[in-house]
Design a protein that fits this description.
Strand order of the largest sheet: 1-3-2
Number of strands: 3
CATH topology of the largest domain: Arc Repressor Mutant, subunit A
Largest sheet: 3 strands, antiparallel
Number of helices: 8
Keywords: Membrane, Transmembrane, Transmembrane helix
Radius of gyration: 27 Å
Helix content: 55-70%
Length: 191
């Protein structure tokens, strides 16, 4: 599978995970309902001699199981939402994948570095996001500086051939932060 095919598989995902606001509203509603239920209804409930299978104990057991289930589900939704909130835009994830593929990260016998100039990086980024030859029509955006400032790439070495940046070849590697974002994206496809 070539780089273009791999990058075309990175698409926007419509998540079924609850939004942060929904998690807060449901958690608050549960807390209010829980305090009303335990503070009012179970205090008014007619007391019994507490045999093991009394209606009071059955209601408490069902309430406890339902509460535990809801709390676990809210916890999972909250964790997923926290991870999703760390994800950058889909275009930046594509660029992280581009760097990972071009640097041959993790492949046996390769340094894990992409040897290119910042101008060539920006042109390749534009072409991978939009279409071939787009950087010939409009000037390439400065994705290199953005990726570097967000610490999604690491410059490992620079070949200094003067002040012309088009001659200075960089060794670009993908950062651990970018690898983590790619991992979160891959996991989140089923959320």
């Amino acid at each position: 599978m070539n780089i273009e095919e791999t990058l075309s598989e990175v698409k926007e995902i419509n998540y079924t995970t609850w939004e942060s606001e929904t998690i807060v509203i449901i958690s608050t509603a549960f807390a209010v309902a829980s305090s009303i239920l335990t503070g009012v209804i179970f205090r008014i409930w007619p007391p019994t001699l507490n045999p093991l299978f009394s209606p009071e104990n059955l209601a408490l057991a069902l309430y406890t199981l339902a509460s535990a289930g809801l709390i676990i589900y809210i916890g999972l939704q909250s964790r997923r939402r926290a991870l999703l909130n760390k994800l950058p835009s889909i275009d930046i994830i594509k660029l992280c994948n581009l760097v990972k593929l071009c640097s041959m990260h993790g492949q046996q016998g390769y340094s894990g570095n992409w040897h290119t100039t910042s101008t060539a990086f920006n042109q390749r980024a534009m072409e991978s996001l939009f279409s071939q030859g787009i950087s010939q029509i409009i000037p390439a955006h400065d994705y290199f500086s953005y990726m570097l400032s967000e610490r999604l790439i690491v410059i490992e070495s620079i070949t200094d051939k003067g002040s012309d940046k088009n001659l200075n070849i960089l060794s670009i590697a993908i950062s651990k932060k970018a690898l983590k974002r790619i991992e979160i994206y891959e996991k989140s496809k089923n959320w």
